[in-house]
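batch_manifest entry 22 of 60
target: UDP-glucose 6-dehydrogenase
source organism: Alloalcanivorax profundimaris
requested by: lab member K.T.
priority: normal
notes from requester: please return tokens only, no post-processing; we will run our own comparison against the previous entry in this batch. if the run fails, retry once and flag.
--- input ---
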Amino acid sequence: MRIDMFGDTLCAMVTAAAFAQSGHRVRWWLPPGRVARALDDGRVLYQEPGLAELVTAQRRAGRLDCRTDEPGLADPNGEPAVSEPAPVVCLALQPGDFDRAEHLAAWAGRGGARLLINQSVFPVGSTEQLQTGLREQGAATPVVCLPDTLQEGMALASFTRPHHLLLGCDDREAEVTMRELLRPYNRRRDVLQVMQPREAEFTKVAISGMLATRLSYMNDMALLAEELGVDIDVIRQGVGSDPRIGEAYLYAGCGFGGPGFSRDVMNLTDTLRRRRVGAELLEQVLQINERQKEVLFRKFWRHYDGEVDRRRVTLWGAAFKPGSDRVDNGPALRLIEALWAQGVDVHVHDPLALPELAAWARDKGTLTLHDDPYDAARDSDAMMLVTEWKAYWGPDWDDLKAAMRTPLILDGRNIYDPAYVTRQGFTYYGIGRS
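--- output ---
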């Protein structure tokens, strides 16, 4: 089948590459920007396991045709510069690009596309709005919603081997086409949940809201655990053993971030406000999360009784989660800003996220970035573990202690054994640990 993909999001790249791998012929139309420039240079900007190799292989095979040579995909009259749409058109655009989505939907309808798939992270009701616009122009193209449920750090696997897929669809023929497109990823068991488009959009943001609530709840419990002199990790195991609750998203830490997760919760909160429905719970979730992003700074401040000016601090990890190069809304950003405000010299190591971090820090403050974690820790007064990359789980404690000026560990993800670290000669602070 021929497919046109529009957008430069991670969702667009994963979907385009996966569909091409399944034998479809995909034209991927990208707007000008960093993603397009990287592809023109033969690179893949998103650092996701297996994704760069898949994109490269599908381009070489001729099934993935990346079009980055027509800025804006528009001619001087404002019409898309694609002569005729493929039978299937996918939109995986940036969150603020709804006007562009309407423009492309109208083009797809005029060209007789048989199906329009909305994968963009737009407000609830957007798919219906696109469908209404097509009907008003007399187009018969059905519009379905395939919400972006990718997990960054394992985005390709979460699309090709999904635990569940949400499909917002109220057209029988469109559902048949979607089941065929998704058949390679839906073979072991039926993971496709079909519902109305508005229900699929709402389910997607509701899932993010629930997960964020669990994380913030455990971070609140971690504060109480410290006051009571108990270990939140033991509490987590006990709570997670209850089958009504389960183990997922119960880890206390220094806050969550990311471009998708945080945005979903904020979108859901905004929707509640616009509908004049109380958003107190989710607003509190967001407030707890913002507070938690500074928890390592507060522990550092208390350890030195506020005497932190001109001290040197090392951050291990800046990405919002392991496996990603993204720092969007991540706890490292808020933490760095707090350290800067107190005159702290900040040094950072991260396996993937240093370019993104450098771009964020430009014109904000001075950061020293390191390719080696032990070089980053040299002469430091504290090491703050922010992202739980596997390479950080088993450090050479002797080398780390020798490198640091003051052997102080602030573990923002509770990945270390406090007793063991203390026996290595370090002062240790975790989250929710006495």
